[in-house]
Structure formats: C-alpha cells, structure tokens
Write a structure and sequence with these properties.
The chain contains eleven helices and no strands. It is mainly α and 153 residues long. It folds into two domains: 1-70, no CATH class; 94-152, no CATH class.
Length: 153
C-alpha cells in the first residue's frame, strides 16, 4: 500500500461511526477485511487504535480476526509498542487482557513466543503486564513460556 493509499484508507476508516450507524458498521468491517493481506506496521497500528472503551456490539471482532492473520512477530511488536495507549483507551473493555489472551488461547507456540519476544524487545508495559499475577491468574498457561524465556531464544 502506498503512503497515499494508506492515508486515504486510514482517514476513511477513522471517519466512520461504527457505534451508531449500521451502514458505517458495514463499511468499517469491509475496510478492515480489505487490508487482511496488507498488514504492515502502519495498518496494524491503526487497527489497534480502534480498540476503545465504547461498547462496539461485536464490531471489533472483525478487527481481531484480521489481526489474527498478521505476522506473529510484527503483531507482537506493534501490540507491545502501542500497549500503553491501548490501556489508556480501553476503560472497562479489557482489551489489554483480551488481545494477548487471544494469542495464548490459540495455543500456537509460534504466536505465543512472538508475544513474549515482542514484549521483551520493547521492555515496557506489555512485558510487565504479561508477568503480572492478575494476567497469569487469567492465563496460567503462559507461565511456562515466561519461566523458560531467555533459554528458548
């Protein structure tokens, strides 16, 4: 995607009212699905920015499905880089719990290791969050990955 195409897509996507306008919801989902094969860092960052504290009535599920197809290492890096902003925006929606949890629930070792690696490379809030008791109480299956982390590389 060229810079001009990206900016046009981003502007059009962010201008949609995906909470109140049924037609905008349809366009939003189509636009999100339309970038599935073009998930670079910029596109992933925009998609992650759509997770907010508003009740989305399931619309964000389309974004989650598209993000599932991203390169695991690239997605983990972008999630780690944007994690503080995600936590600020999420309110009671718990996206910071659900997005990494989705990776863990996949049981895909490549994706899980990418998440742990990405959190470690960023040395920021995602790494601390993944190691927190609250997160590990929800997703205890991550503990063996964290316990053996440096050695797996």
């Amino acid at each position: 995607m060229t810079d001009a195409e990206f900016m046009a897509w981003k502007h059009a996507l962010m201008a949609l009212d995906r909470y109140e306008d049924a037609d905008d919801v349809k366009v939003f989902i189509e636009m999100v699905r339309g970038v599935r094969e073009r998930l670079d860092a910029r596109v992933i960052d925009v998609l992650l920015s759509t997770f907010t504290d508003q009740d989305d009535y399931g619309v964000q599920q389309a974004v989650e499905f598209v993000l599932d197809s991203a390169d695991p290492a690239l997605f983990a890096d972008r999630l780690a880089a944007g994690f503080p902003d995600l936590q600020r925006r999420e309110g009671a929606m718990e996206w910071s719990l659900l997005l990494p949890g989705r990776i863990i629930n996949s049981r895909d070792q490549v994706r899980i290791w990418a998440l742990v690696d990405g959190a470690d490379r960023q040395e920021g809030s995602l790494g601390r969050y993944l190691r927190s008791e609250g997160f590990l109480d929800e997703y205890p299956e991550l503990r063996p990955y964290l316990d053996s982390y440096p050695e797996h590389r």
